[in-house]
Amino acid sequence: MQTEYEPVLEQADAVLDEVDAALVRLADGVYGVCASCGERIADERLAAAPTARTCGLHAG
Ligand SMILES: [Zn+2]
User: Fold this and answer.
1) What per-residue confidence (pLDDT) applies to 45?
2) Most distant CA atoms of the chain, gap in Å
3) Confidence tier at 60 by pLDDT (50, 70, 90)
4) Is residue 53 part of a domain?
5) Residue 14, domain CATH
6) What CA–CA distance (Å, rounded) separates 39 from 50?
7) Which of 39, 46, 50, 53 has the most beta carbons within 10 angstroms of its beta carbon?
8) CA dist., res. 43 & res. 2, Å (int)
């Protein structure tokens, strides 16, 4: 069923996936580590984007 809320719900679903992935990294002990260079992600970046997978240098 297509509703006006569908895009919003799809976005929320994507956010949940991000959070799930972040929790997995937390459990694996690699949370806050850049997936590209392996460097620690800055605390201020994690504060702004808790599900960030990469450091500011490798973002986007
Ligand atoms: Zn990096």
Assistant:
1) 97
2) 44
3) confident
4) yes
5) 1.20.120.910
6) 16
7) 53
8) 40
Give the total residue count for the chain: 60
| Confidence class for position 32, pLDDT limits 50, 70, 90 | very high
* Alpha carbon of 16 to ligand 1 centroid (Å): 23
Please state the domain count of the chain.
1
User: Domain range holding 39?
Assistant: 6-58
pTM for the whole structure: 0.77
Q: How far is the CA of 32 from the centre of ligand 1 (A)?
A: 11
CB atoms within 10 A of CB 6: 10
Taking the centre of ligand 1 as the mean of its atom positions, its distance from the CA of residue 14, in whole angstroms, is 23
CA of 33 to the centre of ligand 1 (A): 8
Ligand 1 center from residue 27 Cα (angstroms): 20
The answer to whether position 1 is within a domain reads no
